[in-house]
Write a structure and sequence with these properties.
Layout lengths: L2 H22 L5 H6 L6 H12 L2 H14 L4 H25 L4 H8 L3 H33 L4 H51 L4 H4 L12 H11 L12 H15 L3 H4 L8 H19 L2 H16 L2 E2 L5 H7 L4 E3 L7 E2 L37 E3 L4 H8 L4 H39 L5 H24 L5 H14 L1 H10 L5 H25 L18 H19 L5 H11 L2
Antiparallel strand pairs: 1-3, 2-4
Helix pairs in contact: 1-8, 1-17, 3-8, 3-13, 4-14, 4-17, 4-19, 5-11, 5-13, 6-7, 6-20, 7-8, 7-17, 7-18, 7-19, 7-21, 8-14, 8-17, 8-18, 10-14, 11-19, 11-22, 14-16, 16-17, 17-18, 19-21, 19-22, 20-22, 21-22
């Protein structure tokens, strides 16, 4: 059976499973819709949290970026995993004890202000839509290759599936759907990882295979071979860091505190019966996350070796089938700069501009014409980083069912996180803006209807971002973490541990942090991308790491304004004493 036919069967079966779970667990009340009734088992919640947190960036893009950036990309691995530990230990138990439905609700009550609640909703919407752009792009990539439909059609199919189980089931439906999606994505990621590790090293564990000796008789380990290959092709050695220490620290810190401020992850700790269950579910989630994250470096290394061996110095007329398959999507391309008909994979950009629009035109020797002006270097191959994990089973010539399984896993990873993000957007609009602020008189039935309408509207916006993505998946997600770090995390952290912070300080801090970070990212990534280098960055910190600066500024502004204005009411201080009491 062909890869496409198997992909239709496996992905279609997973969709039927998700929709069936949504129908079975349909939300009947606002409590079901917002926090799954508040009675989710800690193990179940841990698995759902892992699926919610391991997005398309984790499944698709993280190994892809590590495959090309090598040691420099370890900032994503350390930042995201460290951030989860920070969230589990520092914030989750206190937020669960507070006993509310949403992050803006906590901020609104803690800072005794509907204004603070509205600002928190604005921050949450900026974060969530930035994050969701990466998820919908991931869905489009999978559909464009394995189901052979246009990326925009693939995104629309994904929108329809998410609409079904997010709008119908709410948090209750999403929780149990995410359990199924975790099982799919972890199995889908682990199987090809084991195959690749055995293929290169004979060791079935990719976590150990990364440091094992290759079975090709060279006597080199995987990392030694990668260093050798990358240096020969003109790249920086795979294990060598090229980022500055300040930027490395900033990105890791921004990702860590950004993780701790992500609303769609925080809300998962509101779904368990009691505070001790929040701690337990955090521990279980970390175990489930580790199963995949410890395999990522191995998958990245094996994929990079496979790419170099498969295409470099290969005549285009003899290009492997996987190359032509992915070339048809516009995410992989070749331009014959020297006219010899042989593909040259070297350091440097293959085309100008950096990520040109795919035209689909055929030129001499069948090359894909992405640009008429090649850059002055020897590299002739353009590889979108986001396809590395998806393409690796085909490059390694693994069985077709493994390729189809990978497609189902990638869709599961993207949709699980997209659903969580859509829910926090809809709950913030219906519960925090309408019910708690603008229309307090609406009934529970009307609130539930508004929540579903808000979710449907958010899906449409998310689909637009998926069709017109701003960057690679992991980069887009890193920007979302930066926005969370600069806006919500300081307000939550200070709100729990510093009783002197008042509503004026919190509002000022959130606005300054959000505007500074968002403006910095937009300027360097969209307004003046030609200036996006260390010579023009503030303090040598890239847009991926600027969230930590925004967080520091947020805290300084919040503290200064709070001490310049009146203290919080005594009732708020009493509430904090109760919140921090074991």
């Amino acid at each position: 059976m062909s890869v496409q036919a198997l992909s239709f069967i496996v992905v279609g079966a997973s969709f039927l499973l998700y929709i069936g779970i949504a129908i079975w667990s349909r939300a009947a009340s606002t409590k079901d819709f917002y926090v799954a009734g508040g009675g989710v088992n800690p193990i179940v919640n841990g698995m759902a949290t892992a699926a919610d947190w391991m997005s398309a960036a984790s499944f698709l893009s993280l190994a892809g970026i590590m495959a090309f950036a090598g040691s420099d990309a370890s900032v994503y691995l350390m930042g995201w995993t460290g951030g989860y530990v920070l969230l589990a230990l520092l914030l989750a138990p206190y937020l669960r004890k507070f006993g509310r439905y949403t992050v803006p609700e906590f901020i609104g009550d803690r800072y005794y202000s509907n204004g603070a609640r509205v600002v928190a909703v604005i921050c949450l919407i900026f974060i969530s839509f930035t994050y969701i752009a990466g998820q919908m792009r991931g869905v489009g990539i999978v559909f464009s290759r394995f189901l052979e439909v246009e990326i925009d059609i693939g995104v629309m199919i994904g929108m329809g599936i998410v609409f079904t189980y997010a709008v119908m089931g709410g948090m209750k439906g999403i929780t149990y759907t995410q359990v199924a999606q975790y099982c799919v994505l972890i199995f889908a990621y682990s199987v090809p990882a084991v195959f690749l590790s055995i293929q290169f090293t004979g060791n079935p564990l990719p976590q150990l295979g990364l440091g094992s000796e290759l079975i090709d008789g060279s006597g080199l380990t995987v990392l030694e071979k990668l260093d050798q290959v990358t240096l020969e092709l003109g790249f920086t050695a795979y294990t060598e860091n090229s980022k500055s220490k300040i930027d490395t620290f900033a990105i890791i810190a921004a990702l860590m505190i950004g993780t701790a401020g992500l609303p769609h992850v925080i809300v998962r700790f509101f779904t368990v019966p009691k505070v001790s269950d929040a701690r337990l579910s955090a521990g279980f989630a970390l175990v489930f996350i580790v199963l995949m994250y410890t395999a990522v470096p191995g998958v990245a290394a094996f994929s990079r070796l496979n790419l170099s061996d498969s295409v470099n110095e290969t005549p285009y007329a003899e290009a492997p089938e996987w190359f032509r398959n992915w070339e048809g999507t516009g995410l992989l391309a070749w331009q014959d700069k020297n006219g010899d008909g042989v593909m040259q994979y070297r350091a440097g950009s293959a085309f100008e501009p950096k990520v040109p629009e795919f035209t689909g035109e055929q030129g001499e020797l069948g090359q894909r014409l992405l640009s008429n002006t090649p850059t002055p270097n020897a590299n002739e191959i353009y590889v979108d980083r986001d396809i590395m994990v998806m393409a690796s089973p085909e490059v390694a010539r693994l069985p077709a069912w493994v390729v189809a399984l990978m497609a189902a896993g990638a869709v599961a990873a993207a949709l699980s996180t997209a659903a969580g993000l859509l829910l926090v957007i809809s709950s913030s609009v219906s519960h925090d803006l309408l019910k708690s602020t603008w229309m307090p008189g609406i009934t529970e039935k009307q609130e539930l209807l508004c929540a579903r309408l808000a979710a449907a509207s958010a899906i449409v916006v998310a689909g637009w971002f998926g069709i017109y993505p701003p960057a690679f998946v992991a980069q887009v997600v890193a920007f979302a973490f930066g926005l969370a770090a600069a806006s919500l995390f300081p307000a939550i952290f200070l709100g729990i541990f510093f009783r002197r912070i008042n509503k004026e300080g919190a509002i000022a801090g959130m606005l300054v942090g959000l505007i500074l970070t968002f403006g910095y990212i937009v300027f360097f990534k969209f307004v003046s991308p030609e200036l996006d280098n260390s010579a023009h960055w503030w303090f040598g910190i890239s847009p991926q790491g600027i969230g930590v600066v925004g967080a520091v500024v947020n805290m300084l502004v919040a503290t200064a304004v709070s001490f310049a204005t009146t203290s919080p009411p005594a009732a708020v201080e009493s509430m904090l004493d109760q919140l921090r009491r074991p």
